[in-house]
Amino acid sequence: MESNKSKYFNFEKLKSKSNIWKGEINKVFHTSNLTIMSFKIKKGVKFDDKGHKSEQITILLKGKFKFYIGNETKIMEKNDAVFIASGDNHGGEALTDIEGFDVFYPKRDEKQYNDLN
Fold this sequence. Notes:
The chain is mostly beta strands. The chain has no helices and 10 strands.
């Protein structure tokens, strides 16, 4: 949903998308300037992102996630967050089932990030 007006919504009631990344279930919400995306990823799923135009904040709400930015690796746990600058190579591996949120600015406009609500 894209809007320049303030709005209340229930994130849990948004329609789910599958496999923006392999093995991931997402809910995506867009404003005119940013994207918020929830993720649920099963243990063992790995991904590598060569970078994108958006700045990104990832917040882990559940589980353990081996995450890297460039050459730096950290084990993220519940309530840990990371800022990823535009263009930075990043990725990781779910060490357990994980859940969290990504916030992107400017909004992600690639086809796989289109919301379904």
